[in-house]
TrEMBL record, chain A:
Gene (UniProt): HSPB11
GO biological process, one term: smoothened signaling pathway
Designated name of the protein: Intraflagellar transport protein 25 homolog
Function: Component of the IFT complex B required for sonic hedgehog/SHH signaling. May mediate transport of SHH components: required for the export of SMO and PTCH1 receptors out of the cilium and the accumulation of GLI2 at the ciliary tip in response to activation of the SHH pathway, suggesting it is involved in the dynamic transport of SHH signaling molecules within the cilium. Not required for ciliary assembly. Its role in intraflagellar transport is mainly seen in tissues rich in ciliated cells such as kidney and testis. Essential for male fertility, spermiogenesis and sperm flagella formation.
Record's subcellular location: Cell projection, Cilium
Subunit relationships: Component of the IFT complex B, at least composed of IFT20, IFT22, IFT25, IFT27, IFT46, IFT52, TRAF3IP1/IFT54, IFT57, IFT74, IFT80, IFT81, and IFT88. Interacts with IFT27. Interacts with IFT88.
InterPro entries tied to this protein: FA58C, Galactose-bd-like_sf, IFT25
Coiled coil start-end: none
Keywords: Calcium, Cell projection, Cilium, Metal-binding
CC annotations in GO: centrosome; cilium; intraciliary transport particle B
The F5/8 type C domain, residue ranges: 18-123
GO MF assignments: metal ion binding
One Pfam family of this chain: F5_F8_type_C
Family designation: Belongs to the IFT25 family.
Automatic annotation (TrEMBL), chain B:
An annotated GO cellular component: cytoplasm
Molecular function terms from GO: GTP binding; GTPase activity
Gene that this sequence comes from: IFT27
Subcellular localization(s) per the UniProt record: Cell projection, Cilium, Flagellum; Cytoplasm
Function: Small GTPase-like component of the intraflagellar transport (IFT) complex B that promotes the exit of the BBSome complex from cilia via its interaction with ARL6. Not involved in entry of the BBSome complex into cilium. Prevents aggregation of GTP-free ARL6. Required for hedgehog signaling. Forms a subcomplex within the IFT complex B with IFT25. Its role in intraflagellar transport is mainly seen in tissues rich in ciliated cells such as kidney and testis. Essential for male fertility, spermiogenesis and sperm flagella formation. Plays a role in the early development of the kidney.
Name of the protein in its database record: Intraflagellar transport protein 27 homolog
SMART domains in alphabetical order: RAB, RAS, RHO
Lineage: Eukaryota, Metazoa, Chordata, Craniata, Vertebrata
Organism: Phascolarctos cinereus (Koala)
Amino acid sequence: MRVIDLCEASEGTEVILATSSDEKYPPENIIDGNSATFWATTGMFPQEFIICFHRHVKIEKLTLQCYFVRSVRIDKSNAKEPVDFERWVERDLVHTEGQLQTEEFMFRDGNATHLRFVIKSAFDHFVSVHRVSIEGLNVSSLT
Amino acid sequence: MVKLAAKCILAGDATVGKSALAQMFRSDGAHFQKNYTLTTGVDLLVKHLAVPDTNDSVELFIFDSAGKELFSEVLEKLWEHPNLLCLVFDVTNEQSFSNCAKWLERVRAQLQGSSLPGVLVGNKTDLTGRRVVEASRAQEWAGSHGLEYFETSAKEMENFEAPFRCLAKLFHQLYRERLELFHSLV
Ligand SMILES: Nc1nc2c(ncn2[C@@H]2O[C@H](COP(=O)(O)OP(=O)(O)OP(=O)(O)O)[C@@H](O)[C@H]2O)c(=O)[nH]1
Ligand SMILES: [Mg+2]
C-alpha cells in the first residue's frame, strides 16, 4: 500500500456537514486541494465540519490551513455513518497578522471513516478554513 | 445569500428600558411592558433581520442583561465572545449616561483583541420635560468611543428598530471586510 492524498476528489472524499454556509464560500473549498479558496464561518462559535471518506482509511499526516482559529479539536469515527465520534486531538493555534495558519498533525492511530473538526474559539468574529490535506492509506471499502 | 449569526450584548443601568426595547423589537412593536420586571442574569431573544440591498440576513441573539449590580458576576460568564454591543441609557437619568463608560469597559474586557461594533441608545425620549442628557452630548460621547448613536422611546414605539438594524448592518459589513482579508492571504 502506498501513501496518497486522501482528500483528492477522485478518492470520493466529501465534506458532508458544516455549521456555516455562505454559498460563495462552501465547505467543499476545504478539500479542493487549493489554498486560495476557503470556507468562511458566519457566526458564533463553536463551528464544525465533518469530512467523510466513504471508506476505511489510515491517516498518517494531516495539515490544516486556516486564519483566525484560536482553538480546534478533531474527532474521528470508524462507523459507516457520521456517528460515534471519539475525541482525537485538540490544539491551540497562534495568530500571526496577515499570515495563513498552517498546522500539522502526525498520527499513528489514524484509522477512520469520518473526521469532525470543531473550531472552539477564534481570534476574531469569523474564521476561514482554506485547506485540509490528509496523507494516508486506503484500507478497505465500507461494508 | 448568507445568514450570519451574532451574539449581541444589551447592557446598561437598571430600569433604562433595555427589556422594553428588546420586547418591542421582538414583537414588531406589539408589546410594551408597562410594569417594571427586573431582569435577573440574561434573557435571550432571537430575531432575524434582512440586510437591505442584499440577499443576506443576520440572526441576532440578543442577550438582554441585568442592569442591577447584583448580577454582574453571572454576566461576565454569559457575555463571553460577544459580536455586537447595544448600550442603553435613560435620557432622564444622568447617572445612567455616565455609567455607560463602565458598561462599555466591562463588555470590551470580554474581547481578546477583536473589535466590537456597537451602538449607544438614549431611551425614554417621550419624557420630554424630564430630559437631562442632551442628544449632542450623547452623540459626542458615542462618536469618541466608536459607537453610533440613536434615540428611542420604547413606550411611544419611536425608532426602536433602528439600533438593531444598524447593528445587523455593521456585522454584515465586518463579514464583508473579513472575506476580503481572507482572499488577500493567499
Ligand atoms: N416613559 C417611558 N418608560 C419606559 C420606556 N422604556 C421602558 N420604560 C419603563 O421603564 C421601566 C423599566 O424598563 P425595563 O425595560 O424593565 O428596564 P431594564 O433596563 O430592562 O431594567 P433591568 O432589567 O433591571 O436592567 C418599565 O416600567 C418600563 O415600562 C420609554 O421609552 N419611556
Ligand atoms: Mg431588563
